[in-house]
Amino acid sequence: MRALRRFFARLLGAMNIFRGDEDERLREEMESHIAAQAEDSIRYGMTAEEAHRRARMKMGPIEAVRESYHAEKGLPFVEVVLRDVRYAFRVLRKSPAFTVVAIVTLMLGIGANVVVFSVLNAILLHPLEVSEPQHLYQVRHKAWMTGRLLTTSYPAFEDLRRRNTTFSAMAGIYGYSHAKLNWHNLALSIAGDEVTGEYFDLLGVQPQVGRFFHAADERGPNSAPYVVLSDALWRSAFHADPAIVGAVVDLNKHPFTVVGVTQARFHGTEQFVWPDYWVPMMNQEQMEGWDSLHNRTSVSVTAIGRLKPGVTPQQATDNLNAIVSELAKEYPDTDEGQPLRLIHPGLIGDEGDVIRGFLWSVTALALLVLAAACANLSSLFAARTADRSRELALRVALGSSRRRMAGQLLTEAGLVSIMGGVAGLGGAYLLLSALNRWHPLVESHLVANMDVRVYLAGLAFTLVSGLLFGLLPARQAMRSSPLQSLKSAPTDQLHVGRFAMRDILLGVQIAICTLLVTSSFIAVRGMVRALHVPLGFKPRGAMLVGMELGESGDLMREKQKSIIDAALSIPGVDAVGAVNRTPFTGGLHGIPIFRPGNTDFKLNNAALAPYVFQMTPGYLEAANTKLLSGRDVSWQDAANTPYVAVVNQTFAQKMWGDTPAIGQHFILSAHVTEVVGVVEDGKYHDLEESPQPVVYQPFAQSDGGEAIFVVRSDRAANEMTAALERTLSGIAPNVPIGVESWADSLDGELLPARAATAALGAMGLLAAMLAVTGIFGMAAYSVSKRMKELGIRVALGARKVDVMSAAVGRPIFLLGVGSVAGLLAGVFAARLLGQIVYQANPRDPLVVGGAVLTMAVLGVAAAAIPARRALAVDPSKLMREE
Amino acid sequence: MKKKDVQQGTLTLMVLKTLDVLGPLHGYGIARRIEQISGELLSVNQGTLYPVLLRLEQEGAIASEWGESENNRRARFYRLKHAGEKLLKAERKEWEQTAAIIARFFEVKAEDL
Fold this sequence. Notes:
Chain A is an alpha+beta fold. Chain A has four domains: 2-74, no CATH class; 133-345, no CATH class; 356-531 and 752-880, no CATH class; 542-748, no CATH class. In chain B, the strands form two sheets. Chain B has a three-stranded antiparallel beta sheet with strand order 2-5-4. By secondary structure, chain B is an alpha+beta fold. Chain B has a single domain (4-112), classed as Arc Repressor Mutant, subunit A. The mean pLDDT of chain B is 82.
């Protein structure tokens, strides 16, 4: 009861701190006490003055009385914190430059970490929107011969699905489906997934409207003309009308019934590619004009599966591989028994490892930036505390406890870190909202939002950094001796001790900064190289025209030819051609070819597995792919003339070595094909690939299919877009025409390299700034501390060199040591960096030289001002001071 | 001889007893009385006296109000409340117990054990 009563009284007392009258009562008590005491003494014959002096002396240190009085009065902890915060505000306001530098440093450090963490959070920490994503696996080949996502043929997938004992369900996906959607007046080009009936049940997702299709809906090829719409397509094309369920729409001129709409948050099994629709794979023939349902050699299915409870991925892998070797025995002509493995789906197949590696590495670098920032602030704070040692000593002498002093310094650090953290979060928010509106990121559905997790991480960064750089000065204050500090100059011993700690901090900071600067140099070098890799085609000055003509065979060819002729008639157009797919658009996979005379078309007998493109005459010229020898294909090459092909250098080299390739033969899709031309090598699937063999065959001698038109012209892109749309809509009315510049469409491919360069460049810049402020702070501080000593040296006739080395020798020495350590760390971090940037090579002399030069220039620039101040010492003036 | 500071914990008891015997008093008065009663052997530290007064007031053992001192000076007068009297009794009993225990330790001889 008594304790409770006291607590309320203290709570009331704690409130008084806001009214500012907290000292009033004590002050009056003290006054009346001293007056009474003095009166007593006067009565005994003392003079009034002496009596008052004695009374005050007997009173003891007012500060101590005040503190113990306050400890009783309010809630001491809350009160002390509030008081410290108010005092810290006053102190920080008194040195605005220091405060701003500290806050900006922290803002950059924390902001960088928050941005990186948000991206990490968006990509890695948010699983796919399916039930129990941790048990969902994607089946992948171990070997080289497939594209990124496709794993197996449809019949082999069915065998795997039926025979396995480790998956509760498996589903197949063909993710490269494109369709022309027609419904009343609506005509749209959309892309989606063809999936097997188990797909939705396996993922465990629910429709928003209507229903999904299931395995029971499938009764043989083309038996299930159902389509499920994505939420985005439903909203954009059908105004979110629930009545669309049950309606029949045309997909590639075949009627499909809309059965349902997915939830808004469900986007299939890939994070960066969101399908517009899902149709049963059973109806592939209607969608694509071909189907692979009975073809064991066409690798066209991405297999996913959900493990049975208690089954490990390793057991499942063994199980699948046992089935694969059975299949190889049962179908020796077609099934190769390629071993399989399991990965988590979502990040473009195996790219997941690269993306994960990249993000974790960037996170590590961002944390290093924050560590460097903390080291920087720590030494700044420690230097400031040393400068304030007299103030602190005075307060200790007046009876303030040392613990309070340390608490005060920690509060200042905490206040700075909170302000820096808030500014960092704000900056990160602005940067992320800008990034989220940036076109290539919107295209790839990469949205990094600030959610609770990000804010919590930001708070953690803030508090940890505040503690990190606040502890050193606080420790310093705990150990300082007021007597020494009051006697003007601190003793040498204390000095050396403190400087040693600061030296280490500066050395660590410079090492980290050098590592970051090295990394950004490596990234920039890699980017420059990536931009100068010979692509084998020239995207600049070319437009891509996408038209889904929906024809096949000869009719398609005639349409293509009329479009090419029409485009050629536009003034300013230099060359036009069509190709089945342009490089860097995914879905490429090796197709086996054989040497002439081979009759057993097994994969093991294949001579090569090149990428095969179909093109019209003129494509090579329009793409600016150089023909090295021979000729382009021509309109005369048709199904009834001898099969011909243009190959690239790598193909020619691998097949026939130095023998001229023109006139040589090979077998592609069971047709003996003659090489009529050789073109330069290029990049086809991605920038990082090794030289790949490639075959270009004429459309007329292939299965045909849709094509992309490439139009080369010197005219501006927007002019060309308008002219092409006008001209081509006359030739093919009611066909949606998509025109874009080839260079723009490649932005996505260069995005990872650009993002990496931007991220590392930004961190390198931050690091450079931190290095400058760190060295500058250290040099400036040591010069100002030693002004007197320098003055004496000059007065005694020291040369400029001696003064210089005394003034800024130590920071420069630390710069050297730290840089070497950082460079060594950079060399050892080579593997880490290799994951981030294309062709990272930390031993690259240009990189090492650049990093060394940068650090040297930064160091000299940062030390220049303090050095000049040291050289300008006027001994006579200095000696008269103090 | 150097005066002793009041022992920790005993000041509360002295303050309560002083107020009990002498009635309402101001802070300086309490300090002086305690020093006098001790035969000038004790010295009361203001840094501990005022916090103790504040705590006793917060606990409801004493009350305080501004008044006129004997020399027409403004001072804060403290007086014992009912709860304070009870507290004094309890503290006194406790102290006597402690003193008795200590006394037995001093009287003890080897043959007693």
